[in-house]
Amino acid sequence: MSFKQNLRVINKTANKFEHWTFDDNGNKEKKFIKQEKGDSWAIRKSMHKDTVSGSVNLRFKKTVFLTAALDCPEMIVDKPFKKKVIELQKQYGNDKKLLLKFFNSRDNVWEKKDISKVEVYYFSNDTNEKLVASRVNVDESFNSDRIKKSITDSGIIKILLNHLVKYNKEVEGKTIEQPELAFSPDGIDEMNKNIISLNDCKFHNPITKVRTYEIQGNKFIVGNKYNNKEKFVEAAKGTNLFFAIYWNEEKNKREFETIPLNEVIEHKKQVAKLPKDERTPVPVNIEKGRFLFSLSPIDLVYVPTIEEQENPNIVNFNTLNKDQINRIYKMVSSTASECHFIKNQIASLIKNYDSKSKVGEFGSLNKLETSIDIDNFRIKEVCWKLQVDRLGNIIKAIK
To answer: Is the pLDDT of residue 362 over 70?
Structure first.
């Protein structure tokens, strides 16, 4: 995904690269060379964090009504009852009504157990929430709740819980867990010394890392070939580079979204062969409304007054006055539907936010969502994007 060769850099044109070479006279010159080999583009930026997660299909338990359990008897948890249901299925020729009649005639009681509700297994891949897993170090964050709800191996869950219980203490009749002691370096050493007793006198290898799972969420696949389609990664910090702004006609207001870098790169590859005027800088989500423009860090925006919003033609960007120049902001970052800016004249802050004194030039984030000159506008809701040349001249304002 990353490419660090100093002689080759990505260019704005579709899958072309600037490459230093030498002519027949030995003079150094730069040429554009089209990428011919490979489907992936050379991206000179970290696209994801180092941790790679793998797709997993885990088995869980849930309680359902008897009628639902009879649809898949092989998934019933109670083995004797499952065996009985399968026998009755063969006897009644898979007739579910006869099976229900058999149990209803016995008041839904079998071997002195209430079977009106039955515990069954199900797999995570059968649900809409796909799971991914990765190996992590055992540390102080592993309390009983996290152990039960995130570790994939039931045997390791039992060992960790048995070890954690040893460090519990009673305070005013309440049991207080102490994972900071149980899973400190010394606590982990103690656990591995006694791991056989913690595992019901069965051998187990020492535990320092465990495989934990979580919902796939914003993680994306590494690639489409080989086993890369089963590998998931999380976007690296600082890769929220594209913030899209839409106009929703029904709601009569702007809609917003931050688009992940990997989606933008895939979109660039798909539209690379289209004519320049038919391409869009980011993938457009038509459900959000009519696409207006996208913002990236360092892009400049202009915050118009109410009068200028109603009459945009009164703004002449060739002759901006001091007040208007003060209403030009620089986009800094975005997260989800939030977008943060800073005034264009500011190179660095005089006073960063101090969490102890709670004092800072621009609040806890050291950046702004609202304008500070006029009417306290939310900048993203009214701003116009400015296209600027290399000399700082404003070429165009996108509204």
So the answer is: yes
In degrees and rounded to multiples of 5, residue 314 shows phi and psi of -75, -10
The predicted model gives 326-344 an average pLDDT of 91
Q: Give the separation between CA 239 and CA 45, rounded to whole angstroms.
A: 9
Domain end marker among 231, 260, 295? 295
pLDDT in tens, 195-205: 999 999 999 99
Question: Is 60:148 a contact under the CB 8 Å cutoff?
Answer: no
- CA atoms of 184 and 82, how far apart (whole Å): 43
Q: Which two tokens stand for residue 206?
A: 């020492």
Report the C-alpha gap between 311 and 285 in whole angstroms.
29
Q: Based on the structure, what is the number of domains in the chain? A: 5
Determine the Cα–Cα distance for residues 242 and 235; give it in Å rounded to an integer: 13
Angle CA 387–393–398, to nearest 5? 25
- For residue 228, the model assigns a pLDDT of 79
Q: Count the alpha carbons within 13 Å of 238 in the hemisphere toward its beta carbon.
A: 3
Domain span at residue 180 reads 131-212
pTM (2 decimals)? 0.60
Q: Are 378 and 303 in contact (CB under 8 A)?
A: no
